[in-house]
Amino acid sequence: MDKIPGLHNRPVSQDLSIAVSEKEVKLEIKKNRIIRLLYVIGGTVSLVLAILGIVVPGLPVTPLALLSAFLYAKSSPKLYHWLLNNKILGPKIKNYQRRKGITRRGKAGVLAFMSIMVLFSSFLVIGPGTLRWVIISLGIVGCIVVVFFVPNAKQE
User: CA–CA separation, 50 vs 67, rounded Å?
Assistant: First the structure.
């Protein structure tokens, strides 16, 4: 073993795997104050829209709350933990983080509600014309995003 020169001077790579519990989420706080401020502003706007979505039909609550949690995780541990401990939005965010997605039943509910709102908006609220087809097209894009890009939740 000592016959190979320089063998002991080489760096040794080790696999240091660490199991992280659900409670320990790695927060990637940005160091630049301006970037952090922009993240806080974006998270707050997203949170306000999520709260409005509770009472306004068609405005998604969970995706906006998830976006808010993501932006707060990059800017402020205090705001992030406050959001996770919120009685209304916290359980939705924790469930998404724990299960890494939305259940099939949840996706079906989202698709049904989104379809109803798009059809209601385009045929009962908006008169015939180009805007109707824009709304229908955006509804189809939203359905495609939910089906193909939103991850399915892992079974517990």
Answer: 9
Q: Would you call 8 exposed, middle or buried from its count of C-beta atoms within 10 A (0-12, 13-18, 19+)?
A: exposed
Are 36 and 70 within 8 A, CB to CB? Answer: no
What's the pLDDT tens digit per position in 67-88? Answer: 888 888 888 888 888 888 888 7
Closest CA to 102 of 50, 147, 38, 133: 147
SS3 80: helix
CB 77 within 8 A of CB 29: yes
Q: For residue 27, what are the contacts with CB-CB under 8 A and spacing of at least 6? A: 73, 74, 77, 80
Rounded percentage of the chain residues whose pLDDT exceeds 90: 3
